[in-house]
Design a protein that fits this description.
single chain, 77 residues, mainly alpha, 3 helices, 0% strand
Length: 77
């Protein structure tokens, strides 16, 4: 599957770039990985907020519901 991509540019101090390259760091891969992880976390946070809103509108079950439900399920088999 082909995914669309875009180019971004980041300016850093020359010494930082040189130090990273001397250490064998693939700057492009590190930046891509970090941004993808950050986007994933933002997406998850947004989905959790949506679920919180949905769940906040759900009425709580009556007291003893789970006990009664389990008992009914066991007796039906």
């Amino acid at each position: 599957m082909y995914m669309l991509s875009t180019i971004i540019s980041v300016r850093i101090r020359k010494e930082v770039k040189e130090e990273l390259e001397r250490s064998g760091i693939n700057i492009s891969e590190v930046v891509k990985s970090h941004l993808e992880e950050l986007a994933w976390k933002i997406k998850i946070r947004r989905k959790l907020k949506e679920w919180d809103m949905i769940l906040s509108r759900v009425k709580p079950s009556k007291k003893g519901f789970s006990t009664e439900s389990v008992r009914n399920d066991r007796e039906s088999h």
